[in-house]
Amino acid sequence: MAAEARVYTDDRVTGDRSDVSEKQRLTTASWQVVSIPDNARPDRGSYQRLTKNKRAHIALNYYGPGQRDEMHCHPGSEHIFMVWQGELTIRGINTGEEAKLRPGEIVHINAGHYYQLANETDGVTVLYQVATEPLKSTPTRRRSFRRAGDLKADDLLPAQRMGGAEH
Question: What fold is seen in the domain 19-161?
Answer without folding.
Answer: Jelly Rolls (2.60.120)
